[in-house]
Amino acid sequence: MFDNLSDKLDKALHVLKGHGQITEVNVAETLKEVRRALVDADVNYKIAKEFTSTVKEKALGQDVLSSLKPGQLMVKLVKDELVKLMGGEVAGINLSGDPSIILMSGLQGSGKTTFSGKLANFLKTKKTKKPLLVACDVYRPAAIDQLHVVGDQIGVEVFSDREEKNPVAISEKALAYAKENGHNVVIIDTAGRLAVDEAMMTEISNIHNAIQPQETLFVVDSMTGQDAVNTAKAFNDVLNFDGVILTKLDGDTRGGAAISIKSVVNKPIKFIGTGEKMEAIDVFYPERMADRILGMGDVVSLVERAQDQYDEEEARKLQKKIAKNQFGFDDFLKQIQQVKKMGNMKDLVGMIPGAGKMMKDIDIDDDAFKHIEAIIHSMTPEERTQPSVINASRKKRIGKGSGTSVTQVNQLLKQFDQMSKMMKMMQGGGGKRMMQMMKG
Ligand code: GDP
Asked: Which CATH code, of 1.20.120.140, 2.40.10.340, 3.60.15.10, 1.10.150.130, is assigned to 3-85?
């Protein structure tokens, strides 16, 4: 996420690191580079210019904290300004109303349908709501199918009416259905077009007027940079929406939309989409995002994601298994699946302070687990619980079955063996023993 921008800002801010104090000259030099980095990231020129002049004023003015070195001070000032630009505070969504009605708007391909599913899943699991998804795209039958697929995937009911060609009528029927069936949140996915056009705007504003949603959200692909900002403006002029959803941040190396959209439409970014999976949704925290942009990592989000996946019951079972020496490949597989649910690897690494910068040139393969999973899937149940039975001919068979080599199978067995030993040691009051081992 935002690798290019982080890199350039880092270089720009580095200039001051060797200086003993802030001067007009070194501040101007640094900020010129900061401005260039922002413009390259597709931040609107005017915003970039205002940004750097505010930082300059603060750096040279009253706000200077003498205890900070110039480099640190500038990082702090830039960070504070970034946070402000992205909205400062976290903006929640309004779930008042019974049912609460959430209307999705945006261009075709922006990620509306995917996000509708993610949000339904989020509300269901985090806020114990009972959402209903509504398919209002009357032009593309495939869009209705897509929403049904998403609904099935997350176990959320989808309302559609393939006979009805009026989206206002569909939404109204859906609301009546929601009330009858105890759905307390209704998420309406609407039709988008490839570009802003009048027919689409009229249609969405008709739906908006008829159903009076508590939340109207505008979904936009963050990779489209300034276009995203312009589209946001067009939708906001018609809908006066409540918040922005930035999708596909996982593929956005520049970050221009994330940084400038709030100040152009004066509406907060509420959620971000960071992948195609239903779990790839995050509340937008301006401060955490600024930290990530400046390569300071985002440990808080990382820990939260880990907690989301943490199942106490499972953890207890696992402990027992380790104690009884029964930890097998099936348990290992479960662990891998939990890690994978947390998001793509590159994204996760980017949340570790400093690591994003260090690892940016290393290609982190999201399929890193694929081989491991394939190998385990090719094992028999007996082999999974009792890996010691895996002899040479079994290794050959497993290699063949999983499309890997015997060397790869051996590698995994060795890693697994080491891991099992380590676990045993940690368990059996072996902390001391391990310390001794490490001391050599
Ligand atoms: P819609 O036409 O606005 O409903 O857009 P879709 O929900 O069909 O999304 C268009 C494409 O973008 C699909 O292939 C999605 O899988 C993909 N997509 C949506 N959100 C994200 C995201 O946050 N990250 C990535 N990488 N892909 C996404």
From this structure: 1.20.120.140
Ligand 1 atom nearest 118 alpha carbon: 20
Question: By the 8 A CB rule, do 316 and 101 touch?
Answer: no
| Cα 114 to ligand 1 centroid, rounded to whole Å | 6
* Cβ within 8 Å of residue 56, ≥6 positions away: 27, 28, 31
Q: Is 323 annotated as a binding residue?
A: no
Does 110 sit in the ligand 1 pocket, CB within 6 Å? yes
Instruction: Tell me which residue of 223, 240, 344, 353 sits closest to 300, measured CA to CA.
Output: 353
Superfamily of domain 306-439: Signal recognition particle, SRP54 subunit, M-domain (1.10.260.30)
Ligand 1 atom having least distance to the Cα of 107? 3
- Asked whether the predicted pLDDT for residue 299 surpasses 70, the reply is no
The ranges assigned to domains in the chain are 3-85, 100-291, 306-439
- Residue 311 assigned ligand-binding role: no
Q: Does any ligand 1 atom lie closer than 6 A to the CB of residue 213?
A: no
Q: CA of 45: how far to CAs of 41, 147, 383, in Å?
A: 10, 38, 61
- Residue 248 annotated as binding site: yes
Q: Is the ipTM of this complex over 0.90?
A: yes
HSE on the CB side for 228, CA within 13 Å?
32
| pLDDT tens, residue by residue, 125-163 | 888 899 999 999 988 889 999 999 999 999 999 999 999
Give CA–CA dist 244/269, Å, rounded.
4
Taking the whole predicted model, whether its pTM rises above 0.90 is answered as no
Which CATH fold would you assign to the domain 100-291?
Rossmann fold (3.40.50)
* Ramachandran quadrant class, 109 (left: phi over 0; alpha: psi -120 to 50; beta: rest): left
